[in-house]
């Protein structure tokens, strides 16, 4: 019913407000104090936090990315330039609106309804190659699709592009909920430039799905060989024990040329649509997961930076010469990290990479500005991880108590209204606009 849907959305917004409050009031001040934007990642903006789920499409030129966006949106727009040769030369976010229009990069990076304020750090040259396309597509009510220029090979990749393609891809992949890596069934060779892009996706491998496009253009026997070659190439670059899910089809509305695997093609088309439709329903849990992972990283960062600051010798502090302090820290960094991990019982999986941290220290001016370690602040982050996040998850995690649990279940009067949204004791209701 409409009343139930409104109640569900109100409950979801309440959790989102609480989650944002935790980040903005507890985590963000520590990020700023410890210069986490330099050593780790830029702060999360409210616009990014509130954004619809985003789907990023990446691939070499002419792999059908724009055709796939056209198919997904169900829209024919003059701004979709679909040609056999490299055509799309801009990053283009397809967003929902009542009337079709184009918003150019500098304006899109300022618009409060869009989560792209962070792109301003890449400068005017990049913003000239970014735009938001507003379309009245029903699918875009719940997700945003980001089309990208095809990755070229050799010097063509850098000629005419006044920005770092891999760095932009990494920024967008970090904020995307799903990354579709597209391949043309006719040409699976991975150029060095595309390999660089794939390598920056490695930390986000759990979000990556591979799309073997234009699969109807080759016969059945060759398709099997192409599929095997794709699995080999992708596994070699990502260096993961499990290969990313591969969707095989031709993602457009035209008739298939070879009919041998029509059933497979249709099933994978439906699977892609199903994955996109699921994104809005799991968005809240993904946001909780992302903020929790960030809190863990910030906690480790605060401890490590505080420990490094405390270990700077007194005579170097008294001299206040940045170059001498930097040399000492970088020379002894491996030992200092090992000590910090042992003394403060840090997980090895949360520790910063040695060479990355060394590079960040080399580029940081005013090392005596690094904060000393305040254990009260660390304990406050522990409280977020051990109490506040579990309280949020208790209402939305969807996990029932075991029969042997010693916990006393909440009475109906105390039960969170969020339980109904995520299916406690009832089947999930599909959200409708």
Query: What is the helix fraction of residues, given as a range?
Result: 40-55%
Task: Write down the Rg.
Answer: 24 Å
The count of β-strands is 8
State the end-to-end distance: 12 Å
Low-confidence stretches: 417-433
Residue share in β-strands: 5-15%
Backbone structural class: alpha/beta
Strand order of the largest sheet: 3-4-2-5-1-6-7-8
Mean of all residue-level pLDDT scores: 86
Structure description:
- There is one protein chain.
- It is globular and about 75 Å long.
- Mean pLDDT is about 85; it is low at about 415-433.
- It is of the alpha/beta class and about 425 residues long.
- It has 17 helices and eight strands.
- Helices cover about 50% and strands about 10% of the residues.
- It has an eight-stranded mixed β-sheet, with helices on both faces.
- It starts with a helix and ends in a 12-residue tail after the last helix.
- Helix 11 (about 285-310) packs antiparallel against helix 16 (about 375-395).
Keyword list:
eight-stranded mixed β-sheet, 433 residues, 8 strands, 17 helices, alpha/beta, disordered C terminus, 48% helix
Brief rundown of the structure:
Helices cover about 50% and strands about 10% of the residues. The protein has about 425 residues and is of the alpha/beta class.
Topology, please?
Layout: H1 2-33, H2 36-39, H3 46-50, E1 54-59, H4 65-73, E2 91-96, E3 101-104, H5 105-108, H6 123-127, E4 130-135, E5 144-147, H7 165-175, E6 178-184, H8 192-200, E7 208-213, H9 220-238, E8 246-248, H10 262-278, H11 283-311, H12 314-319, H13 322-331, H14 333-343, H15 354-362, H16 375-396, H17 418-421
Parallel strand pairs: 1-5, 1-6, 2-4, 6-7, 7-8
Antiparallel strand pairs: 2-5, 3-4
Helix pairs in contact: 1-11, 1-16, 7-8, 11-14, 11-16
